[in-house]
Design goal:
mainly alpha; 80% helix
């Protein structure tokens, strides 16, 4: 049975097109890193380097190992959720493949435009032959599940540490609303139709792909799968929130558990809303500000924020960089085998 293959750009043409974009992305990332480093250095200088270094020195290698282990729990839990969603979509992938795709995508976590999801879709396409419009719902529902899990944790934090259950209701409603939208294809089809009409029926292929992607969302509507996915996502993010609670205690800041979880999750969400790669700048600023408002001295809030970002965002990036070359090489090998 003959297979029709889509034409590919030559490596030279692809490289020429990607070159300027790659340098632009690197420049944006470098500028953000400089901004974050200068901000930390300025605050540390204003509050006293001695206190900042003393707080960092209070952490033992065993403490750092514990923080990294809890971050790894988060990545593995969310990787298992990715595998669950892939199975619901009908992808013929193994748990090893799905974990490789999910962890490898972290290599792109500090690049503009959420390229981690696109890289994962490319690997899946090479290894299964599925087109992007068939696999796009996987990235959509995974992102929505993260939002729902983090919003639920913020609701629990508000309920147990500040204003009581009533104050948590609006956030909890938003969490469930995000999960509802991600698993209701009729809403996405309506958005596609509205967008098609609003643009004067331009870009028909784009909106046709969006409608096809909406049809695939039916696969994620099973209550049992959503329940398991919710438990995995919430448990994963809770592990990192617990790591933040432990870190603050080790540095001498007695912040209650649910308050620490709320600060960590809210700062992570705030960083994501800025649109900066990996939430750089926004997440750090929000975390330091929230800790300061909670009475944590700046000379403690600064190193705590630095350490938790290293053991979460930058640890994920490091794991992704380790897995990325292997995932890329294996996907190319599989794609070449399928073409034979």
């Amino acid at each position: 049975m003959a297979m029709t293959m889509t034409p590919r750009l030559s490596p030279r043409a692809t490289s020429a097109a990607a070159g300027p974009r790659r340098w632009r992305d690197l420049a944006i990332l470098a500028a953000l890193l400089v901004f974050v480093v200068l901000g930390f250095a300025g605050l540390a200088s204003a509050t006293g380097w001695t206190e900042t270094w003393a707080a960092l020195g209070a952490l033992s290698p065993a403490a750092m190992a514990a923080l990294l282990t809890l971050s790894l729990v988060n990545y593995l839990a969310r990787g298992l959720r990715w595998h669950l969603f892939a199975g619901q979509l009908g992808l013929p992938t193994t748990i090893g493949q799905d974990l490789r795709h999910f962890i490898g995508g972290f290599a792109m976590s500090v690049t503009p435009g959420r390229l981690g999801e696109l890289v994962r879709m490319r690997w899946i396409g090479r290894e299964t032959g599925w087109r992007f419009d068939r696999t796009a719902p996987l990235a959509l529902v995974d992102r929505a599940a993260d939002l729902a899990a983090m919003a639920a944790l913020i609701a629990l934090s508000v309920a147990f540490s500040a204003t009581g259950l009533a104050g948590a209701v609006p956030v909890a409603i938003l969490a469930f609303a995000a999960a509802f939208v991600a698993t209701r294809p009729s809403l996405l089809r309506a958005i596609a139709g509205t967008g098609h009409r609003a643009t004067g029926r331009r870009l028909p292929r784009l909106f046709a792909r969006l409608r096809r992607a909406a049809l695939s969302l039916d696969a994620f509507s099973r209550p049992s799968a959503l329940l398991i996915a919710g438990l995995l996502g919430t448990g994963g993010w809770l592990a990192e929130g617990y790591a933040f609670h432990l870190l603050l205690g080790w540095m001498g800041a007695e912040v209650p558990f649910w308050r620490a979880v709320g600060i960590f999750v809210f700062a992570t969400l705030a960083g994501g809303l800025t649109g900066a790669p990996g939430g750089l700048g926004g997440a750090e600023a929000a975390m330091v500000a929230l800790l300061a408002l909670d009475g944590v001295p700046v000379e403690t809030a600064l190193p705590a924020t630095l350490v938790i970002r290293v053991t979460t965002l930058w640890f994920a990036l490091g794991l992704g960089l380790l897995v990325f070359p292997y995932a890329e090489r294996l996907s190319k090998r599989t794609a070449d085998a399928l073409e034979i």
